[in-house]
Amino acid sequence: MNILIVDDQINVIHGLMTSIDFQKLGYQRVASALNADDALRILESEPIHVLVSDIEMPGKCGLELNAIVKERYPEVLRILLTSHANFSYAKEGLRLASITWSSLRLIWRSKRLWRGLPCRCS
Q1: Are strands 2-6 and 29-33 parallel, antiparallel or unpaired?
Q2: Of 6, 41, 67, 81, which one has the fewest beta carbons inside 10 Å?
Q3: Where in the chain are the domains?
């Protein structure tokens, strides 16, 4: 399986990539993008099974990216991350059938982060 991490802050991408042993969890490739347009180019060129995206980014935001991915690549599991405490983001994420930070936090607490998540969330 392949995972794509999208965030406009390179330190967030680096932090996720260095703190999580994706290979041990069964991921063959961890791709990254600094914006939604680059993420869409990656999705067009290689198979991605899990998309982890920040919400607030310049250009297309993570919610827009998730809406596009839901339409074009419905088999991709979509996870939204944000450091902002804006409930409207979670509400929109749920409308798009994405996993939101709140859901991810529950998965993290149960020590099943990334493992066993289905490759479809719709």
Answers
A1: parallel
A2: 41
A3: 2-109
pLDDT of residue 93: 56
Two tokens at 72? 């074009």
Residue 57, both tokens: 């980014």
Could you tell me the two tokens for 68?
């596009």
CATH number listed for the domain at residues 2-109: 3.40.50.2300
Q: What is the pTM of this model?
A: 0.74
Q: Give dist(CA 34, CA 107) in Å, integer.
A: 25
CB 51 within 8 A of CB 6: yes
Highest mean pLDDT among 10-19, 39-48, 91-100: 39-48
Q: Encode pLDDT of 80-108 as tens digits.
A: 886 655 556 555 555 555 554 444 444 44
